[in-house]
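Marked as duplicate of an earlier ticket. Keeping the data here for the record.
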Amino acid sequence: MASFAVLLRAVNVGPSLRVTSADLLAAAEAAGLGAARTLLNSGNLVVAAGTSGATEAADVARLVQDRLGESIGQDVSAVGLSAAELDAIAAANPFPGAARDHPSHLQVHVPFGDLDEAGIARLDLANAGREMLATGAGVLYVHYVDGIGRSKLTPKAVDQAVGAPTTARNWNTITKLRTACAGLASR
């Protein structure tokens, strides 16, 4: 069975855009997606295509995004990743030591569009901090050596360099999403 992860952008980080697990599960059900499961309270959903007719991760994300918008009355941005895309992200990780030793300091920024490799290279060269940036599998990996909270590499700067809005998940979350998708796929 095909499985997908849906990642919401900028939810539950402040008072302006709150999406509960119940909201997310209800949106998945309304979209006809199957075996829906949320992960953490930061806008992560793992689903199967169910009766939705969706076969691509982008279609799954669009279904969730549309149903959420209808139910909560606010626009919510969502990006989808297939189980295979999550596996490719893991395989392409240029910072395996960080993934092993400091997984909360390694973030994967998933773009809502294509990566601008030149923009990321310019950001990397201009960055005065110790963060390490690399691309692979259509995403931006950032190893926040000194921690994310201390970094001056802001989400706005990352989005500008990437050339599209992004949503980021740390390596712990990427690992949990992969495991959840693999569990659905084995059903």
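See parent ticket for discussion. The chain has two domains: 3-85+175-185, 87-170.
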